[in-house]
Amino acid sequence: MRATVSPQHLYESISEALRRGERLVVATVVETRGSTPQRSGAKLIVFEDGRMLGTVGGGCVEAEVWAQAREVLRRGQSGLFTFHLTDDPEKPDGDVCGGTMKIFLDLWSSRSSR
């Protein structure tokens, strides 16, 4: 699992990226049910070049969030997404926490009117 970082470091990184004209997605856990690796408020930044900073839980859920964040960057539209962390017999190394996470993927860009 990726290490959590301080809110100050997250927002400084966002500010620096926006100053360079980069787009990014801020993924924020807004609701959890059952067993999950992180709680509400956890954040992950996915930069336009694919780099990540922060964590929403690591493992498979983080890979799914990363992939959805890349899609948000491609489409240019933020959204609320639900991720189910259930054991899938088709994926023996899948998400086994058993809970559900709602994560808001917010597109940030210095090119748009925020």
Q: How does this structure look, described?
A:
The protein is α+β, with helices and mostly antiparallel strands and 114 residues long. The chain has one domain. 26% of the residues lie in helices and 31% in strands. The chain has two helices and five strands, in the order H-E-E-E-H-E-E. The protein has a five-stranded antiparallel sheet, with helices on both faces. A hairpin with a 4-residue loop joins strand 2 and strand 3. The mean pLDDT is 88.
Question: What topology emerges from the helices and strands here?
Answer:
Layout: H1 7-19, E1 23-33, E2 43-47, E3 52-54, H2 59-75, E4 79-84, E5 100-109
Antiparallel strand pairs: 1-2, 1-5, 2-3, 4-5
Provide a quick synopsis of the model.
This protein has 114 residues and is of the alpha+beta class.
Fill in the keyword field for this structure.
2 helices; single chain; alpha+beta; 114 residues
